Amino acid sequence: MSKENIKQATPEDIKKFLEGHDDEKYITSIELDQTDDWSIDETNKVYIVIDDPEKGKKIKVQKFTPFCWTKNLRGSGFYGDDIDTIKKAAKTFGITTEKLETGDNQRLESGYNFMVKTTGTYRDLVNFFKRGGIDPWGETGKMITLLPPVEQFMIQTGKRLFKGYDDYTEVHKLTFDIETTSLEPDNGHCFMIGVKDNRGFKELLTAYNEDGEYTEEGEKLMYEKFFDIVHELEPTIIIGYNSENFDWSYIFGRMQILKIANSIVKKSKKTGRVTSIVMDTDVIKTKHPMIKPYRKPSTLKLGAETENYYQTTMWGYNVMDTYHRVRQAMALNSNLQNGRLKYIAKEAGVERQNRVYIDGNILGKIWNENKNFYYNPTSGDWYELDGEKPEPKDIEGYEDKWEIVDGRFLLKEYLNDDLLETEQVDDIYGQAGFLTAALVPTNFVRSITMGTATMWKTLMLAWSYENGLAIPDIQEKRPFVGGLSRLLKLGYSQNIAKFDYASLYPSIQLTHEVFPEVDVSGALRAMLRYLLDTRNEYKYLAADYLKKGEYKLANKFDKKQLPIKIFNNSAFGSISAPYIFPWGDIDVGEMITCTGRQYLRHMIRFFIERGYDPLVLDTDGVNFSYGEEVNNHTYIGKGYHRFVKEGVEYKGIDADVAEYNDRFMHLAMGLDIDEVWPATINLSRKNYATLKPNGKIKLTGNTIKGKMIQKYIKTFLNNGIKMLLDGKGKEFVDYYNEYFERIYNMDIPLADIANKSKVKKTVAQYLKRGTNKNGAPLPRQAHMELIIKENVHVQLGDEVYYVNNGTKKSHGDIQVKKTKNDPPEGTLVFNSYLITSEEIEKNPDLKGEYNVPKYIDAFNKKVEPLLVVFKTHVRESLLITDPEDKQFFTSSELELVSGIATKPEDQDSLDELMTISKEEMFFWNKKGVSPEYMIKDRFEGDVANEVANDVANETSDDDIEYF
User: Fold this and answer.
1) How far is CA 311 from CA 138, 246, 295, in A?
2) What are residue 491's DSSP bridge partners?
């Protein structure tokens, strides 16, 4: 059948497809009848776990027909290429074969164009191929595409998870957290487990008896009670924070030590790799009486990186780690500086004003000693009876009232706050994954740990199955022209407007019909149309409800647009990676990027003519500075574009953007005003600081922010950058000289200047740390060497502070001296000393000796990038290493500047940017397309009439509206 005869997908088709054509609601999990190895599943049935808010929880069984896609196997050696033998094997295993539609497309013809099914079990399907010489998971497996049984069932039936739930918070969720005396189960024990759900249950379990003594029997009973609670409550989701890396492995480790569980390690016969670790125990009850809990090697997609971890699996439950959701958010949002619960809760706005904090190093000590403390219930602060009272908190409702409580009270409050914050952080960061899981036919855990290209692939596999379409063959990888990113002006600029194209790449595809020919049913096009249209609808509703003060509805629709945004933004990445995503096409990806580059150049030309100065551009938008005269610009909207209202007078930057949209933006394309800022500093490529209208500062890039920057430097950067963004060059220089003298005179508190390291190994483990892959000893660690030298008792997880007190900037914290008088291994020289955490807590302003040249050098290196706001001679002489060298400048010398590069290569030229590259021209010539094909001015000649007709037709009943 030719492409013309294949039914083309519509957005209505896509809506029904994504939501699942099966109407069954409240499915929370779909399980198999096997333990952990689905590749040898004996059955052709699944268990559907349902949590109906009205009818309660139930599990039902449903059969499915196992299937896979194959290439043409003739000549592959399958069953020796003997037709009779193949037919006999097919009869034995209940095999049927169907030829799939290709639309006469060559990649589909050479791809997986046969559907193979069995009336038997999943294992029958696998064995049919294995006995014929094709191992689905070996080298010969490239001849077939085989999905896990759960995905097969969901694709075949059109069922989706969580249908019927409008919000993630409606799903029954249990949160837990453990407190331990060590980082490893063989070096300590767990003494408390906190458990709560989102339906009112809460309990703290301990391993201590009535006399406050820890016993192993008490720890055993604590685990039994914890899993009894899980079994009784039957939550849909079980969450912890960093639970996969710590809590679960610690619990299972302790259960083995206490002899209430045994671990059974299963390995691949072929590779010897661990496939799962089964917990053989009667303490943990899953929802299947014969299937034990287990942990299996899994991968977590974090932006462009992939991380390995062990996934805990309990049959019938979704076991999740909220820390994973936060890590995924951090990979996309560089403003999130770390993943600690305390920090994330504050960033998410869920931190309670009277939240109790206890340093993790002293949790066990506080419980065991159970001393009395002063405690303020309005702030959550506490201190020892003979200690120093904390400063009053600047919070609403604060009262200077203090109660005497014991340590266990504090610890329980701390654990309760941890549980609540984990639940609330998960409500926020888990929402997008939950909504995505409702669209992709796979299990919950897999849907939120897989990459976006795999999501698109799963969707297209499901679409192909439903529509009897072949799967394309993959394409080889090749380099291609990417997005346009340039830094045109370093330094300080005022009155900044950031303009960007709304959903640039999807909009280019929809406006200019840039889609792979291999998508013969137009599914990708229809999906993008539906997703873009639906997201815009949700965004509009969220904004409308927000204006009306209906915050709950506004928040609901804002959350609903999140997973759609993820799909939209990842479509290009999938399409341009046909070696991963079979429906991709590198030529199509390159057409999208080359078109996007031309749109950016066109935008820059237009706004330069209207008095704007381009500063930075990156893929889909440009930051411009503009003068006061721009505020006088006016434009009467013609209503040619959906962003522009006819007859409305627009002023300032709104006028110029409205004119641009009316003239040049067609169909899905549109230019937005993303943000407007009073000032910005461009430090280097992809490193900048911006001053927001509310006075807050946003830092982007590792030059001026990072987890490893010491506190004394962060303090200066935060204050200094604010001064520069306010245009106060002289005040910045005065502040630099004053702060420099404080460093030079050892006037910086040791708490701010000290290095901080966490103890991750015992001293014995550190001494046996081994060698690297080249056989050389692993490097020494200063904090561990200091612990050994000073014979300090530490526990795993303790934080150790130490200060370098050498005399030269080249002096490391520890150095190995090798002279003819030293032993062969050398002599260890210490240029550092320890400070206890107790000293820092009791006296945060404690001062002492440190390596002045070293800390000044580190300080100056972080200050240097900020100097791009000054004239060249100031940059060259401002930084000093001795107060005697302090320079003096006039106010005019310290006026802030932009566009002056220290080295020519530090910034890009406008001429280079506006010139189409050789690589781009090669592509345009290869395609026989004009590089200006996308630019159509509605205000010029016949084009205006043509496009006006197009605009009128955009809103016809037969077409799709983008808002």
Assistant:
1) 24, 12, 5
2) 682, 898
What's the rounded Cα separation, in Å, for the pair 670 and 487?
Answer: 24
Bridge partner residues of 690 (DSSP): 680, 698
Of the candidates 599, 600, 624, 596, the residue with the CA atom closest to the CA atom of residue 610:
624
User: How does DSSP assign 463-487, residue by residue?
Assistant: HHHHHTBPBPPP----------EEE
Q: Which long-range contacts (CB under 8 A, 24 or more apart) does 380-387 make?
A: 380/352, 380/353, 380/354, 380/355, 380/356, 380/413, 380/417, 382/356, 382/410, 387/842
Mean per-residue pLDDT, 538-566: 81
- Give dist(CA 258, CA 106) in Å, integer: 62
Sheet holding 832-835, edge to edge: 755-758, 799-804, 832-835
Mention every residue, 6+ apart, whose C-beta is less than 8 A from residue 917.
Answer: 481
- Per the document, the length of the chain is 963
d(CA 796, CA 361): 9
For residue range 441-494, list pLDDT tens digits in order. Answer: 999 988 888 888 888 999 999 999 999 999 999 999 999 999 999 999 999 999
23-37: per-residue pLDDT in tens? 999 999 999 876 545
Reported as half-sphere exposure (CB side, CA atoms, 13 A), residue 876 has a value of: 6
| Amino acid present at 710 | Q
* Helix, coil or strand: residue 122: helix
Cα 125 to Cα 62: distance, rounded to the nearest angstrom: 18
- Residue 495 sits at φ, ψ, to 5 deg, of 55, 80
- 3-state SS string over 879-916? CCCCHHHCCCCCCCCCCCCECCCCCHHHCCCHHHHHCC
The DSSP bridge partners found for residue 500 are 621, 672
Rg (CA), the chain: 32
CA distance 713 to 418: 30
Instruction: Give the whole-angstrom CA distance, residue 862 versus residue 712.
Output: 11
Q: What is the pLDDT of residues 818-876, one digit of tens each?
A: 777 777 777 889 999 998 777 777 788 899 999 999 999 999 999 999 999 999 999 99
CA 253 to chain centre: 29
Q: How far apart are CA 732 and CA 734, in angstroms?
A: 5
Structure tokens at 823: 């032993």
Instruction: Please state whether 158 falls in left (phi above 0), alpha (psi between -120 and 50) or beta.
Output: left
Give yes or no for a contact between 870 and 729, defined as CB atoms under 8 angstroms apart: yes
Coil, strand or helix at 179 = strand
Residues 6+ apart with CB under 8 A from 293: 278, 279, 281, 284, 286, 312, 313, 314, 315
